[in-house]
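Take the subject:
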Amino acid sequence: MMSPGNKLGGRYRLDERIATGGMGDVWRATDEVLGRQVAAKVLLPSLLNEPGFVERFRGEARVVATLTHPNIVRVYDYGENPMPGGGQVAYLIMEFIEGEALTARLQQKGRLTVEEALPILAQAAEALDAAHQHGIIHRDVKPGNLLLAPGDKVMLTDFGIARSALTGGLTQAGSVLGTAAYISPEQATGQNITGQADVYSLGIVAYQCLAGRRPYDSDNPVELAMRHVNDTPAPLPPDVSEPARQFVDRALSKDLSARFATGQAMADAARAALSGTTVPGGMPAAGGGYAPGVASGSAVPPPGRGLDDRTSVGMPFDPATPAPQQKRNRMMLFVAIAVLLVVVAAAGVYALVSGNQGADANLADGEETTSQSAEESADTGMSIDVATYLNQNPQQVKAELEELGYETVTIDGTGMFVSDVTPNEPAGFETPITVHASMTKVNPDDPGTGPGDDQSDGPGSSDPSDDSSCLGVLCIPE
C-alpha cells in the first residue's frame, strides 16, 4: 500500500491522499524534478492481475495526452512502479487543479441561475468539441467530471471510459458505457455513438443546473436508462428564460438531427441563450420520439448477441441492420435485458454501476465508487462474483447488492473488509445474502476492488460518483 513520502518513478513524491475509489487512489503529489504540484492516480495493485485493466489505464493516458485545450485537464506522465514490500502499481500523473467539482457547487447552491450555468456549459461544450475533433468521445459527462477552477474556468476530466475513434479503443461497438443518470438514448440502446452522445449528457447537466435536479431518476438502472429513451423531461422552472429552455430542449433531443451536431454548436447556442437570443432553428421537444437505428444509422444488438464476459462489456453488432419498427416492443425487451447485463457484468470493468448506493443507480459512474460484477443466470436470479467485492467496505457492498435487487442482505462480523459473500451460486433476489466482514484484508492475489466512497450529488437524488474531492485528475471509473 502506498503511503505519504513514497515515490513513483523516482520523482513523484506522494503527499496526501485526496480521494479513494473503486479502482484506486488519487494523491496530491510533488514532482521533485520540476518542483511542481501534480495529481497522481494510482491503480489498486490487485487490479494489475485483472485482464485488460492495465491496458485500459495505460490507454487512458495515451488518449488524453493527445488533447491540448485550455478546458481539458492535462496528462503529464504514465508509469508502472514497484510497491514497497513487493508488487507493482500503475499510475497516471495529471495536472492538479485548485477548485471544486460542479457537483459541490450544486450541493452548495441547489441550482444555478441562467447567468451562472450557461458560461460553465459553454466552456464544457468547447472542451468536448476539442476531444471530438481528435476522434475521442468522453462517454461519461456529468457534474463530477467538470471541475471549476478559480474564476469558474471549467476543466473537463475523467476520460477513463473514453473511446478513441482513431485507435478503436478497448471497447467494442455495441457496448453500453456511461452513467445511467446522464446516458444518451443511443448509449442506452447499445448503438455505435458519436460526439452527440456527449452533447446529450451535457444537456442533462444543463437541466440539472437550472432545475436543481436531474430530469430522470430511478432506483432501477435499467428503468433509469430506458427513461432516457422513452420519457420526456418535466418543464424547467418558470424563472428559466425561454432561450435557455430552448437550449436545453435542443441538447436533450432524442432526434439526432435536431440535437446540436457538435460541441461548438452547443457552446455557441449557450452564449446566444445567455444574451437572450432564441436558439436558431425549429426543433421538437426534448421528449421527441427516438427510433433506435434510424437517426444514427445504427441498430440495436439483435437477440442473442449481447454480453461476452465482464472484461469485454459487449459484443459488436452490425450497425447497418436497422431494427424493424413493427418489432419495437420486442426490441425494447432485448435492450432492457442487455442494459441490465451491462450494469451487473461490466461495472467492475468500466464502472457501469458506480457507488451503487445512490438513487441514480449508475451504469458507469466516475472514479470514487465501488465496482460490482455479476453474471447472468437462470430466471431465478444471478450469481455473485465474489472477487469483485473482496476487501471492500461491508456497508458499501450491502448497499450495492440491495441496489441490484436482493431483498435481504446482512453483514456477518464487524470488520472493515469483505472477506466473502454467500451464497455465490445463482440465487433469486429473495434469497438471503450474507456479506462476511473481516478485520484484515484477504490475500492480495485475489482480485479485489478496494473501498468506495460515500460522496453524494446535489439536490434531487444522490450520485456517489460525482465526488468533489477528485480535483485536477482523471477519475477512474471503477
Observations:
- Residues 165-175, 287-330, 342-381, 444-478 have pLDDT under 50 and may be disordered.
- Residues 161 and 350 are 6 Å apart (CA to CA).
- The domain at 7-95 is CATH 3.30.200.20 (Phosphorylase Kinase; domain 1).
